[in-house]
Amino acid sequence: MQQSTTKMNEALDIKVTKAQESRLTGTDFSQLPFGKVFSDHMFIAEYDNEKWGNLQVLPFGPIPMSPAISALHYGQAIFEGMKAYRQENGKIGVFRGNKNHERFNRSAARMSMPSISSDIFMQGIAALIEIDEKWVPSQDGYSLYIRPVMFATDPYLGVRPSDKYTFALLTTPTGPYYSKALKVKIETEFTRADEGGVGFAKTAGNYARSLYPFAEAQKEGYDQLIWTDAVSHEYIEEAGTANLIFVIEGKLITPSVRSTVLDGVTRDTIITLAKKAGIEVEERRVSVKEILDGIESGSVTDAFAAGTAATVTPIGEIGYNGKIFTLPDPSTRTISSGIAKTLNDIRYGLIPDEFGWNWIL
Ligand SMILES: Cc1ncc(COP(=O)(O)O)c(C=O)c1O
């Protein structure tokens, strides 16, 4: 392995160890199952003695660790998900990475984990993408998914916040997301989050607890779940890994962000673009009854999931206590498809980025 020390800017020294051989030539970009193919390198930083250090870019691979690390036993683990896009002019833009950095630190605070500076977060991404630049796809609809993760590494079985942590950045090229309309189930037995809990944090346990209800829903033929509030199950919160947005009588309606709902970057982006386009937006509590009655009366004309992975995925059918409610055909949904197109055009640098969302490397 060749070793060198790269100074990214005045602030940070990042040690770079290059992989001897790239796996790029053996990678078929037309067959990219999500999250399975990783680029040649990863970024790592370690926290000890109350500070981050040992910043390095190194070949992607296993990290040696004790089986006693507290992340494995008590779940101090958080992550993020964001994307880099190959712009029309060949440059690479990371979409709204500052929002993911802010959310990462909110998750860290709730899980009693240390915050990470935007320098480490952003310069780590820049250093990693610089060395793995060829892994950023240029085909239409493709992107490089960036997965920041932090986990507790104290080899200690006592229940208390760890003293040591590892921060890592992994990247995985992803292909276009063909969004067939989803069949979703309104979940009224299991819950994702409750007031005072950790629903707003992107922490491992939120996803672990969702797996069993999701598998049960899949057995019934559903693609995804709609979570409701843990107290009454009368109010809609969000979907499995996306926020929910409805169009009711021409207005965009979305459940307000609260301690039980993840504050999605895509949701925020869509709200901003909708307002700019003169569409009225309401962020408020949205009841199951309002949506189901509205589908029956025809006032609810659109429902979609909004998230980094899928951007805008139409919901075709909603199941509630065994009854199926069918939404209008996705081809009629001009508001959401128009916003989705604008969003994609900004991400790929096809139209001016007037909100300054693309962080160009
Ligand atoms: C539970 C949950 N809600 C919403 C979202 C959408 O958030 P974003 O648009 O930032 O990807 C995600 C995905 O990150 C998620 O996991």
Which terms would index this structure?
361 residues, 20 strands, D-amino Acid Aminotransferase, Chain A, domain 1, alpha+beta, binds pyridoxal-5'-phosphate, D-amino Acid Aminotransferase, Chain A, domain 2, globular, 2 domains, 10-stranded mixed β-sheet
Can you tell me about this structure?
The chain has 361 residues and is of the alpha+beta class. It has two domains: 3-174, D-amino Acid Aminotransferase, Chain A, domain 1, CATH 3.30.470.10; 182-347, D-amino Acid Aminotransferase, subunit A, domain 2 (D-amino Acid Aminotransferase, Chain A, domain 2, Alpha-Beta Barrel). The protein has seven helices and 20 strands. Strands 1, 2, 3, 4, 5, 6, 7, 8, 9 and 20 form a ten-stranded mixed β-sheet that branches. Strands 10, 11, 12, 13, 14, 15, 16, 17, 18 and 19 form a ten-stranded mixed β-sheet that branches. α5 (265-276) crosses α7. The chain is globular. The two termini are 26 Å apart. Residues 1-8 have low confidence and may be disordered. The protein binds pyridoxal-5'-phosphate (PLP).
Number of strands: 20
| Continuous helix count | 7
Classified by CATH, the class of the largest domain is Alpha Beta
Structural shape: globular
Share in β-strands: 25-35%
Lay out the secondary structure.
Layout: E1 3-7, E2 13-17, E3 41-48, E4 51-59, H1 70-74, E5 77-79, E6 82-86, E7 92-95, H2 97-110, H3 118-131, E8 143-152, E9 165-174, E10 182-186, H4 204-219, E11 224-228, E12 235-239, E13 243-248, E14 251-255, H5 265-276, E15 281-284, E16 286-287, H6 288-297, E17 300-307, E18 311-320, E19 323-326, H7 334-347, E20 358-360
Helix pairs in contact: 5-7
